[in-house]
Amino acid sequence: MPITVIESLDHEGRGVARHEGKTIFVEGALPREQVRFSSYRRKPNYELATAGQILQSNALRVAPRCPHFGVCGGCSMQHLDPAGQAAAKQRVMEDAFWHIGRLRPEIIYPAIYGQSWAYRSRARLSVRLVPKKGGVLVGFHEKRSSYVADMDCCEVLPPRVSALLLPLRRLVSGLSISDRLPQIEVAVGDAVTVLVFRILQTLTAADENRLRDFADEYGIQIWLQPGGAESAYAFHPLDAPPLGYALPDFGLELQFRPNEFTQINHGINRMLLRRAMHLLDPQPGERIGDLFCGLGNFTLPIARHGACAHGVEGSQALVNRAAQNAAANGLSALTAFAVADLFKATPEAVASWGRLDKWLIDPPREGAVELVKSIDGDGPQRIVYVSCNPATLARDAAVLAHEKGYRLRGAGIANMFPQTSHVESIAVFER
Question: For 59, 97, 345, 357, which has the most beta carbons within 10 A of its beta carbon?
């Protein structure tokens, strides 16, 4: 195997090297390491490779904690110390701002990071009947593959969920529809853990009894989903407490259905909210837009500060949930919600919301380019932008800075997904 020296990490957590005129992306390698590598895909200008022998190690290299690391595709950075992961993600964000947006933040905020393991409160487990491997497999996909990894534990899932992987294999193996159950969604709340079984065929009475017994034995609630996401319903037990999470800093409790979007890491979400509210600085009398508001994760803390919060979201179901959460927390008088497709925002649509002093934007990976393009001269004085994709954040930042007259006052990352290359960012723009 050839030898090379790694220069940096890319946005997927792969080591980047130059070798014989090509760029080599090396999985499992870290900056300043000398490694032997084996290429699995060759193109004229670059190669994709895996690290073999590490001849000279980075001081931040650690032993991966999970026995399935390298096979399971769920994590890509377990070999890097958590502080090193945060630093690498901050560099990815800064590089995106410069190379895509030709911008540099005036301030780089300290990285937000916390619990590195057992943090994942939402997951989609794939289920496959594989007779050659002894029956049913339950877990995440293998790296670069549609196959399901042969897993008996997962270090980023809460321990009680990780401990269900083998029992779930046995449960599904005993069902009449073991080959017609492609996935199990996991949703963990403060008071209950829900498993949503995607079923492509009607259960028998014996199947239903097995599911009830499983739920009772392991202290979880089972939902069934025979069709699209909206078809999911609680199966057993029906008297389980509702899914929800607390935001103690703001005296809030938010409820959600297992198929509704929530941040995957409740601990980091609380810290991110704390920073977002500090940067946004909501004041009584202000009218603030929470755009892509979801179930009210940012809207309700804004209202708790005394500002009038106007939440906009593309999903009627999520808007209904946000309004219910506002009512349950006594904030209906300070909140209003509307349904709108923000990916198709226009200046006229934005103007119809009325004057908004500040915005908080938290879009999906696609970003909010049409929304920021719709800002006119009477737009908000401050925008706090929470992003799960540095590339679309940088693209939208370029519009705000070069076309709309905003300054990029500051930016930083939150390590929402430890052990993975996923980058969550927060940025502040001001006129």
Answer: 97
Distance of CA 271 to the CA centre of its chain: 15
With contact defined as beta carbons under 8 Å apart, do 225 and 231 qualify?
yes
CATH fold of the domain at 3-61: OB fold (Dihydrolipoamide Acetyltransferase, E2P) (2.40.50)
* CATH fold for the domain made of 90-115+264-430: Rossmann fold (3.40.50)
Using CA atoms, how far apart are residues 337 and 42, in angstroms rounded to an integer?
51
Per-position b or e across 397-414, b if 16+ CB within 10 A of its CB: bbbbbeebebebbbbbbb
> What CA–CA distance (Å, rounded) separates 287 from 306?
10
Helices (H), 308-375: 316-328, 347-351, 369-373
Q: Looking at 72, 293, 308, 388, which residue is catalytic?
A: 388
Kindly state the average pLDDT of the residues 38-66.
96
CATH 3.40.50.300 for domain 122-188+192-236: no
> How many CB atoms sit inside 10 A of residue 253's CB?
15
Instruction: Give how far Cα 109 sits from Cα of 57, 183, 271, 412, Å.
Output: 29, 39, 13, 5
The pTM is what?
A: 0.95
Which residue is associated with the tokens 């992987």? 165
293 a catalytic residue: no
Q: Cα angle at 305 between 304 and 306, to 5 degrees?
A: 90
Tens of pLDDT, residues 319-373 = 999 999 999 999 999 999 999 999 999 999 999 999 999 999 999 999 999 999 9
